[in-house]
Design brief:
mainly alpha, MetI-like fold, 2 domains, 15 helices, about 0% strand
Amino acid sequence: MTKYIAKRLLLLLPTLLGVIFLVFLIMALIPGNPGRLLLGIDAGQEAVDLFNHQFGLDRPFFVRFWNYLFNIVTKLDFGISYRTRAPVIGSVIQHLPPTLTVAVFSVATALLIGVPLGVLAAIKRSTLIDSGVTALAMLMAAIPSFWFGMTLIILFSVSLALLPSHGADSWKGFILPVISLAIPGSSGFIRLTRVTMLDVVHQEYIKTARAKGAPEYSVIWKHAFRNAALPLINGAGMMFGGLLGGAVIIESVFSLPGIGRQMVTAIMQRDLPLVMGCTIVLSVIFMVIILGIDIAYAALDPRVRTRFGGGSYGN
């Protein structure tokens, strides 16, 4: 198991380096002068040249990339924002909690909705309940999150005045964003749970458990669901990673001060250090999630450890 984890950790370094280089290259290829864009069209050429010189933008691409990478490795220095003149890492950390909060609770809520409905559809296969749950999942998948979010604002904030429509001043401000993402997201867990449970409930060990007189609740949740849960771990991790980088629309709808809105603003303003800082932090979080999924797979399925770790089932 240790060897397997070490191999997965070693793969993270070249992946992260590739992400940093790719984003740095894309930002460098965007046409336009960063100094002119940030200082405005009325700024003198001397001021623009001074700005570019202060931030090293007049140096060759590979020199700038190497200096940036060297500062991260040796000093954990992600640079200074062109726009705010504040350290990038502090700004990223400040805007990260709202995004993480929405992502964590959205995935958890989607699982709480999707898994029981998927199990119900599987054990009631080819019945009216199964058809109803499947139709509900298709309806959920067709709901755009941003439209659903605005509908919730009209209903619960404007009409009923029960929940805030924007901001993250209290825990109530996260309820509507979480619901907006969890309801459409739960459709995938319904379908995935149903399919995996259908593959498991007809296995011989399930028939054996029933033949021994095990309670139906124990058969479904202790025996069947335990072996059907592996794909759900991967699905939850991928949904969480997608929400980290793709929740900018919901953050805009609810005016949440998250990292998604911050990164979009930085891209529009060509604030390279801030874009890089947001990208690196999100990439590290996403890769840690993938690593956690791999470790969970290896812990729950000995075949994974054997294939990639080189050990036996007992290791």
